[in-house]
Amino acid sequence: GDSVTQMEGPVTLSEEAFLTINCTYTATGYPSLFWYVQYPGEGLQLLLKATKADDKGSNKGFEATYRKETTSFHLEKGSVQVSDSAVYFCALSGAGSYQLTFGKGTKLSVIP
Amino acid sequence: EPEVTQTPSHQVTQMGQEVILRCVPISNHLYFYWYRQILGQKVEFLVSFYNNEISEKSEIFDDQFSVERPDGSNFTLKIRSTKLEDSAMYFCASSTVGSWTDTQYFGPGTRLTVL
């Protein structure tokens, strides 16, 4: 079945550091790929998505590119802020399916 | 901005009791979902619902679980006889259409504790 593997956390960075959170997937066909973010005490919010190969999703300075050849969707941000501290989830939705399959989540802490 | 709401935020129950978790999806959305996250584990899909019918369900969603849209705004998840292993955060989500490219919008979750 479909699966998502993302780097284990927690990740601690200093403000203005570069962020990469790795995400790889296994799926048949051409899934859609998502990054969700969960701030403390809140629900899951869509951060960005890409629905076909080579698409780049971007939002709030975060970017991720759908790489079919490496089955990856790594999340990057050039300069993190304290307000980016949250748990980040990579997810996919397989063609013809209603369900999202999630990775385990990566907790990011940004310190001043 | 419209959002998915869930009540209660925290529910504590005794093993064997029935619980109903409530959700109000975004008003113009047609597809509704329940997910759960056991502490320290992945967010897992339970069920999707469209046009008053279950569209898809996972192996987790056994006969102890049921879903209902009792009126035009609420969407509920019922667990008939709770077990200790049902303790988890339960998330409701909704989307405009049931396409794999569509965005699912999540509520803040209900933390269920079974004693």
Short description:
With 112 residues, chain A is an all-beta fold. Chain A has no helices and twelve strands. Chain B has strands at residues 5-7, 10-13, 19-24, 31-37, 43-50, 53-57, 65-68, 75-79, 88-95, 105-106, 110-114.
Question: Your description of this structure?
Answer:
Chain A is mainly beta. Chain A is built from no helices and twelve strands. Helices cover 0% and strands 51% of the residues of chain A. In chain A, strands 2, 5, 6, 10, 11 and 12 form a six-stranded mixed β-sheet that branches. In chain A, strands 3-9-8-7 form a four-stranded antiparallel β-sheet, with no helix packed on it. Chain B has 115 residues and is mainly β. Chain B is built from no helices and eleven strands. In chain B, the strands form two sheets. In chain B, strands 2, 4, 5, 6, 9, 10 and 11 form a seven-stranded mixed β-sheet that branches. Chain B starts with a strand and ends with a strand. The A-B interface holds A 31-32, 34, 36, 41-46, 49, 51, 89, 91, 93-105 and B 4, 6, 31, 33, 35, 41-45, 48, 55-56, 58, 91, 93, 98, 100-101, 103-109.
Structural class of chain A: mainly beta
- How much of the residues of chain B is beta strand, in percent? over 45%
Biggest interface: A-B, 27 and 26 residues
What proportion of the residues of chain A form beta strands (DSSP E)?
over 45%
Order of helices and strands of chain B: EEEEEEEEEEE
Mean pLDDT of chain B: 93
Low-pLDDT sequence parts of chain A: none
Tally the beta strands of chain B: 11
Our measurement of the CA-to-CA distance between the termini of chain A, rounded to an integer number of angstroms, reads 41 Å
The DSSP helix count of chain A reads 0
Q: State the helicity of chain B in percent bands.
A: under 10%
Major pleated sheet of chain B: 7 strands, mixed
Oligomer: heterodimer
Count every beta strand of chain A, where a strand is a DSSP E run of 2 or more residues: 12
Poorly predicted segments of chain B:
none
What overall form of chain B do the CA principal axes indicate? globular
